[in-house]
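Human:
If only I could read backbone structure tokens as easily as an amino acid sequence. I am handing you a single protein, as its sequence and its fold in token form. I hope you can help me see how the letters and the tokens relate. Thank you; the sequence and its tokens follow:
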Amino acid sequence: MSEESTTSERPFLKVVNGNPTDEDIAVLVSVLAGAGSGGGDAEPTTRNDWGRPIDRLRPQWGGPGSFTNLRY
């Protein structure tokens, strides 16, 4: 990077009021950087279809009152 590109950029953080120490600014920058990092790719979760409301609308299969076609 050249010096020209760094001088034309807007500052990341601007102190409007007060007189923070270098440690205060370092803590604030690290917290903001950690919050914006996203934490990486999340592992895919296992799909759990137990107890879905749509299952109440489906007919029972293999129940005591169901008919089984043995000549299928």
Helices lie at 3-8, 22-36. The chain is about 30% helix and 0% strand.
